[in-house]
Write a structure and sequence with these properties.
With 27 residues, this protein is mainly α. The protein has one domain. Helix content is 93%, strand content 0%. The radius of gyration is 12 Å and the shape is rod-shaped. The N and C termini lie far apart (40 Å). Keywords: Membrane, Transmembrane, Transmembrane helix.
Length: 27
């Protein structure tokens, strides 16, 4: 169960980083 939680958090972090990079690229 802990591994699943870590994986979900990792996916959220990757999504957040992708969004930030996308916004920075638009500037």
């Amino acid at each position: 169960m802990l591994l699943r939680l870590d994986r979900s958090i990792l996916l959220l972090i990757l999504l957040y980083v992708w969004m930030v990079m996308d916004m920075a690229a638009e500037k």
